[in-house]
Amino acid sequence: MALDPQKLRAKIESIGDLPTLPTVVTKIVGQLNNPSTNAADIGKLIEQDPALSGKVLRLVNSAYYGFPRQIKSIQSAVVILGFNKIRTTIMTASLFSSFRKGPAGFLNINRFWQHSLGAAMGAKSAAETLGSVHLAEDAFIGGLLHDVGKIIMDQYQPAIFGPILKYAADKGMLVTEVENQVMNGFNHAAIGSWLVENWRLPKDIVRMVEGHHSPQRYNQDRELVAFVHIGDILARAIGVGNGGDNRMPALNSEIVANFQLNEVFFEKSVTKLIREIEKASEFFSMLTI
Ligand SMILES: [Fe+2]
Ligand SMILES: [Fe+2]
Fold first, then answer.
1. How far is the centre of ligand 1, averaged over its atoms, from the C-alpha of 213 (Å)?
2. How far, in Å, from the CA of 69 to the mean position of ligand 1?
3. Do residues 210 and 185 make contact, with C-beta atoms less than 8 angstroms apart?
4. Angle at the Cα of 218 (from 213 to 220), degrees rounded to 5?
5. What number of other Cβ atoms are within 10 A of residue 181's Cβ?
6. How many A from CA of 71 to the centre of ligand 1?
7. How far apart are the CA of 151 and the centre of ligand 2, in A?
8. d(CA 25, CA 35)
């Protein structure tokens, strides 16, 4: 079975009811990139969406953030967390529900999002372990979104994606390897990056999604793309969730060499990741709501 990637692309791009991010989320992400934004503006925007405000407060008061006192208002959450962390929290709180309304497919959606969350925490832990703490929150968002193209295929092209998943399982292959064969190199990474671009999310996020299986090709946002590539593999290594196949991809050798990934790195980043996951039960329980 070989498909014309051009035709498939056109088919996907013409889907009318693709999942959207709540407008308020897109607005907030845009505002946070604006240097003149202040905490009060961001707080007001979040408060426009009561369901989102509730989820954000629940998350910031969870063990994951570990604040000693309860944070009672969105305004204080923005001030205490800072813009970067609040952006991650908002994306996490809204993303799962955006996809819940879509048609049912073949993927186990809870395990899929567990994998995505695991990869997000893995990407963050890789960034921190490699000394790029300032990129950790962005890497988290990239990890959260990296496989979003699989959900699009699963929910909107199940007649194509179902057999891809089955073939991958039967042959012990990665979904991305089967996609590349069947769709001539057009894979979930390309579909996901197109969706994220459509949501008007920043370019670095688009690149992280697009490049997570081919990080060596990226000069721009090179570190971020690499962190998401590593995070995906770390999540698989410790068995968090399932991204649609059971195999573990190899780390790209150029990335291993460029970032000097050695035993010490793996020990540190895996320990950090396991600790994060242990604290994240509120995040995980949000997946089943
Ligand atoms: Fe992937
Ligand atoms: Fe993945």
1. 6
2. 38
3. no
4. 135
5. 15
6. 36
7. 11
8. 18
Alpha-carbon distance values, 253 to 216, 247, 248, 257, 260 (Å): 9, 18, 15, 6, 10
Q: Is 10 contained in some domain? A: no
Helix H, strand E, coil C: the string for 170-214 is HHCCCHHHHHHHHCCCCCHHHHHHHHHHHCCCCHHHHHHHHHCCC
**CATH code for position 143:** 1.10.3210.10
Give 116 Cα–ligand 2 centroid separation in angstroms: 7
Of the pLDDT bands very low, low, confident and very high (cuts 50, 70, 90), residue 1 is low
Q: Cα torsion for 28, 33, 39, 45, to the nearest 10°?
A: -20
> Cα separation of 91 and 145, whole Å?
10
- The answer to whether residue 9 is domain-embedded is no
Residue-wise pLDDT for 43-84, tens only, equals 999 999 998 999 999 999 999 999 999 999 999 999 999 988
Residue 68: which domain range? 20-101
Number of compact structural domains in the chain: 2
